[in-house]
Amino acid sequence: MNSDFRSSSEFAKAYSFYATLLGSGGHVFHARALCGHTEAEHLHFIGQSFETTLEDGPSSRLYRIAREGGAFTRLNDRETRQIRLSADGRTLAVACAGDDPATDRIETWSDERCLTAQTVAGRIEQIDWSPDGTKLLLVVAGTGADLAGIHGGYAQKGKVETAAWLPEVRLGEGEDLWRSVWLWEGKEAPRLLTRPPLNVWEASWCGTGSIAVVASDHHSEGSWYSAGLSLVDIATGGLTRIHQPADQFGYIRGAPDGRRAAFIEAFCSDRGLVSGQLSILDLTTGEIERPDTLGIDVTSIEWRSATVIHFAGARGHHTATGDYDLERSAATESWSSVDLTNGEWAPSSYPIGEHGTLFVGEAYARAPFLAEQDGATIRELASLAAADAPETMSRCGAIEPFSWIAPDGLEIQGWVVRPQGVTAPTPLLVDVHGGPISAHRNRWLARTRAAPILASQGWTILFPNPRGSTGRGDAFARAVKGDMGGADTQDIISGVDALIARGWVDAKRVAVTGTSYGGFMSAWLPSQSQRFAAAIPISPVGDWYSQHRTSQIPEFDEIMLESSPWAADGAYFSRSPAFFKQIRPVPTLVMAGAIDKSTPVGQAEECHFAALRSGAPSALVIYPRAGHSVRGYPEYFDSAARILWWLDTYVHPAGQADAAANGEES
User: Fold this and answer.
1) Domain holding 502: CATH number?
2) Do 262 and 280 meet the contact criterion of CB atoms below 8 Å apart?
3) CA 306 – CA 260 distance, rounded (Å)
4) Which Pfam families has this protein been placed in (predicted)?
5) What is the reported pLDDT for 159?
6) With 0-12 CB in 10 A as exposed, 13-18 as middle and 19+ as buried, what is 149?
7) Any idea of the CA torsion for 630, 364, 318, 356, to the nearest 10 degrees?
C-alpha cells in the first residue's frame, strides 16, 4: 500500500462518490444551528460547503432563509463557529474566525448587516444572550487549549514563523490553556469575567445578574469528567458552587427569570456528548427535579418560556422531541420518528413559538434538510441535497432498524443497511461507533466513510448499538462501566451471528471497523472471536497503560475500566488488544492522525505491531495533519479508498473465498 494512493482506482471511486454527494462550488451540503423567531420573516443557520476544491475542505458560513422556505443567501465570508438569536428575535450574535489564527470575532447582525464587531484572543466556543438582550457572554478557549475528541482531539496552535528545528516545549501550564467567560455589551471590547484557576466548559445566563457555568479547577481535557455547576456574579466575578453531579453533566441552560438552571446529567464518555436525564435545579431551595421525559434520553434542551423546557433526544431507534411544563409537572411528546433523525452529534432542535421547533433533519438515503415541526407535521424549508445525490444514494442499499438477543438475554439494537436485489448471503462490514456512550442513528450516508460505497457493491453493513450506547436509559449506558471490551464484545458478535442465522451474511466474509472506541473494538474483536476476516481500526486504543500516560483524557480510562493504571494486572492489561494475539491471523489496516491527543498515534503503532506478531498482513497509515478519527479532507477520501482496497484484497468476492483459503491466487 503506497503512501500516495491518489492514482488508485479506489481513490478515484471514493472521490467521485463523495464529490457527487457533497457537491462543489459553494453547494451547501450540511447545516447546523437553525434558529428563528415567530415574528421574524427569516431564519438563520450555519451552512457547510466546499467553496474551492474538496481537497481544501469545507467552509462554514452564515446563511439566512425565508421562514416560508425557498433559496437561501450567504451573509459572510468568515469561518463561522456559533450563532445565537436574542430573545426578541431582533439581533443575531455571530462568532467567527478573526484575521489571524490566534483570534476570533464576535459580531451582531440585523437585516443582513453586521452592526458591530470586536476581536478576542482565542477560540469562541459558545455564545449566549442575556434575557434582556443587552449583553452577550462568550466562552473562549485559550490559543493553546485542547479540543474535545469530537472536534479533533488536538491542541490548538497559532501560526508561528520560526526555525524549523526548534523543539516544542510542553510545561502543562500556561494562560493560553484555560477556558474563560467574557462579557460584551456590543460597543467596547469584551471584558474578561472569569480567570484561572477556574476553567469554564459551558455557560448560560441565569437571569440578568448571574451566569451558570459548567466548570472545573484545572484546564486539562480530562478534568471535565469531574466538573461542577457554579454561579458567577457578573458584577464582581464572584463564584458560588451549587451542584456537584455524581457522574457528568452538560447543556446548561439558565431560566430567563433566573430562578432555575436546567441541564442534562448522564454517565458520559465524551465532552460534548451528554445523553441522559433532564435535571432542573431550583436556585432558591437547592432542590433538583428530575422529571420523566417519556423514556427519552435527552440530548439537547432550550427554555421555550420561563416555565416550559423544550427537549430532544433518543428512545431506542426513535429520535424524539417534546416539552416539559414545570407548572403542570408533565412532559408532552411532540414528535418521534424511526425514519428521520436530527442534530449533528446527537438529536437537537430549537423551539419557536408556543409549540413549534426548527431542526436540520436527515436519514440514510435523504440528504440533510432544513425543517420546521408543528406537532406531528414536518415542513421541509429547503433540501441540501446536491443535484445527483438522490440518484447516487438510491444505489447504496436501504437502512432498517435491527434487534437481536445477546448471550445473557439482553436485547441489543442497531441498524442494518442491506444492498439492493440480493438473495444470497453477502459480505458484512461491522461499523462500531465511538464513545462508547454514543449511538448509531438513521443518519445520512450513515456518517461513516466507505460504508455506502460498499453497500452499492453488494455488502451488508451492521451498525450495532451495544450496551453502553445511548437511547436505552441510564442502566444500559452504565452497563459498559468497568466492563468495556466484555459483554459489549459479545453484543456485537451476537449481532453478526444473528445476521448469519437469517441467511443475510456469509460467515466467512465478515470485517470490522470503527473509530475511537470503535477503533479499540476493531482491534479487540479479532483477539476474542474467529468471526472476522479483516479489521480496520481507526484512532484505536491498543494499550490502556500507555493510553493513560499519553492521552489528554486519562480520566476516561479510569472511569470506564474501573481499574488502576498503576497495577500490574487488572483491566488495563486484560482489555488491551496489543497484549493479545489475534485468534487467527486477521489482515489489519490501522489508520490514525499524527496530532491526535485523545488516542495518541502510539496506540495505532501498538495495534499494528500486535497484528504483525499475530502473523497477519498489516498496514499502518498515519496522516500527519489529522486529529482524532481522521475527519479532515482530503484524508477522509483517502482513508475511505484504503478501506475499499483492503476489503477487496482480503475479504474476497463471492466465488473466491475458497480459493483464497486454499492459498490459490484469486
Assistant:
1) 3.40.50.1820
2) yes
3) 9
4) Peptidase_S9
5) 65
6) buried
7) 100
Assign 187 a pLDDT band (cuts: 50, 70, 90): confident
Mean pLDDT in residue range 454-482: 97
Q: Over 50: is that where the pLDDT of 264 sits?
A: yes
Task: State the distance between the two ends of the chain, measured CA to CA, in whole angstroms.
Answer: 18
pLDDT tens digits for range 505-546: 999 999 999 999 999 999 999 999 999 999 999 999 999 999
Quote the Cα angle for 410-414-416, to 5°.
135
Cell numbers for 422: 440480493
Amino acid 189: pLDDT: 94
Q: How far apart are CA 595 and CA 245, in angstroms?
A: 32
Torsion angle of C-alpha atoms 173, 175, 180, 186, degrees rounded to 10? -170
Q: What's the rounded Cα separation, in Å, for the pair 220 and 178?
A: 8
According to the model, what pLDDT value does residue 25 have?
A: 83
- Residue 51, CA atoms < 13 Å, CB-side half-sphere: 10
- Chain-wide mean pLDDT for the chain? 94
Listed in sequence order, the DSSP H helices in 275-335 are none
Asked if residue 339 is part of any domain, the answer here is no
At 265, is the pLDDT very low, low, confident or very high (cuts 50, 70, 90)? very high
Q: What range defines the domain where residue 396 resides?
A: 389-651
284: its cell numbers: 432558591
pLDDT digits (tens, 9 = 90+) for 46-82: 999 999 888 899 999 999 999 999 999 999 999 999 9
Please spell the DSSP secondary structure of 220-264, one letter per residue: SGGGGGG-EEEEEETTT--EEEEE--SSEEEEEEE-TTSSEEEEE
Q: What is the DSSP string of 198-226?
A: -EEEEEEEETTTEEEEEEESS-SGGGGGG
Q: Is there a domain that residue 117 lies in?
A: no
Instruction: Name the grid cell of 505.
Output: 451474511
Side-chain-side CA neighbours of residue 92 (13 Å) = 27
> Which residues neighbour 119 within 8 Å (Cβ) at sequence distance 6 or greater?
98, 99, 103, 104, 105, 189
Residue 503 amino acid letter: G
pLDDT of residue 481: 97
Average pLDDT score over residue span 151-155? 84
C-alpha distances (whole Å) from 647 to each of 12, 111, 358, 446, 637 are 16, 52, 41, 19, 16
152 vs 95, higher pLDDT: 95
Domain count, the chain: 1
The model carries a pTM of 0.95
Could you give the dihedral angle defined by the CA atoms of residues 117, 119, 123 and 127, in that order, rounded to the nearest 10 degrees?
Answer: -40
What pLDDT, on the 0 to 100 scale, is given for residue 498?
98
Which residues make beta-bridge pairs with 369? 361, 383
pLDDT, tens digit (0-9, with 9 covering 90-100), for 392-419:
999 999 999 999 999 999 999 999 999 9
Beta bridge partners of 378: 373
Average pLDDT over residues 38-42: 90
Residue 333 lies in a domain: no
Quick check: 514 and 599 in contact, CB under 8 A?
no
**Which cell goes with 638?**
483517502
DSSP 187: S
Average pLDDT of the residues in 457-483: 97
Residue 253 lies in a domain: no
Structure-block grid coordinates of residue 396: 447504496
Beginning with the edge strand found earlier in the chain, give each strand of the sheet holding 239-243 in spatial order. 199-206, 210-216, 228-233, 239-243
The DSSP code sequence of 485-547 is TTHHHHHHHHHHHHHHHTT-EEEEEEEEEEETHHHHHHHHGGGT-S--SEEEEES--S-HHHH
DSSP string, 20-86: HHH-STT-EEEEEEEE--TT-SEEEEEEEE-SS-GGG--EEEEEEEETT---EEE--SS-EEEEEE-
Q: Any bridge partners for residue 240, and if so which? A: 231
